[in-house]
Amino acid sequence: MSAAVRFELRKLAAQWRVRALLLAALLGPIPVALVMSAQANPPKDTLFGRFALDNGFALALMLLGFLGQWVLPLLTSVVAGDSFASEDQHGTWKTVLTRSTSRNRLFWAKVLVNLGLTTLVLVVLAASTIASALLVEGAPALTGLTGQLIAPGHALWLVAAAWLSVLPPLLGFTCLALLMSVWTRSSAAAIAVPVVLALAMQMLGSVGTLEPVRPFLLTTAFESWHGLLTDPRFTGPLLEGFVVSAAWAAVCLAGASFILHRRDITGG
């Protein structure tokens, strides 16, 4: 298993898209923070938007809300969607599976490496966003969602925790991209489908008549950090988001494993 993981790590390290993804996560927040600070009027129609031009913590949280809706599912799909499909496109299944490894070990090696990369990308993106926002807008006391003032030191921990809270749904989208990669055998489809499904979930979650369905949507977990910024604090949505994300991940990985183990690889 360790040999398979090292093999997959070397493959990822050699891919230009992985380097580009990490570079975008590191440098991308900098111009965004600068552009936001140059705005004449704050985006008051967004969460924490009214304080974004005066408070780095608010700016980091506002960007988290935006990225959770539109960007994070794409970031995690760019590499995961190509993980299994690339073996089909290059016809390397037969070569890989006859070189001292099994389908099960190779499957879990790819899963572990992609989940690790997703975690790394989020950590880099979160650190860069928070640091850029604080450098541009400063670090005064943060006004919470219930109007309470949060001291800068405590606010930093809460903002970091808010960013960390989106990891479970992000890993869920990674598993969804892996399923699409195995199922469709197409990198383009495996990258696009999770993004399209994320947009569809966002639309479904905004329909009032479908409120009973909303807790089971993977995108709802991207909003579970809101309870950390209230007084009193509530963490129920965080637990629900973790359970829903774990269920999505388990179903997607089970489906991907089933499809892969039944695949005929004699043709390549």
Short descriptors:
1% strand; 268 residues; 12 helices; two-stranded antiparallel sheet; single chain; 2 strands; mainly alpha
Q: Could you describe the 3D structure shown?
A:
It is elongated, with a radius of gyration of 20 Å. The longest helix has 35 residues, at 103-137. Helix content is 68%, strand content 1%. The protein has helices at residues 2-13, 16-27, 29-37, 56-70, 72-83, 85-90, 93-97, 103-137, 152-164, 167-184, 187-205, 236-261, and strands at residues 142-143, 149-150. The chain is mostly helical. It has one domain (2-261). It has 12 helices and 2 strands, in the order H-H-H-H-H-H-H-H-E-E-H-H-H-H.
Please render the helix and strand layout as text.
Blueprint: H1 2-13, H2 16-27, H3 29-37, H4 56-70, H5 72-83, H6 85-90, H7 93-97, H8 103-137, E1 142-143, E2 149-150, H9 152-164, H10 167-184, H11 187-205, H12 236-261
Antiparallel strand pairs: 1-2
Helix pairs in contact: 1-8, 2-8, 3-8, 4-8, 4-9, 5-8, 5-10, 5-11, 8-9, 8-10, 8-12, 10-11, 10-12
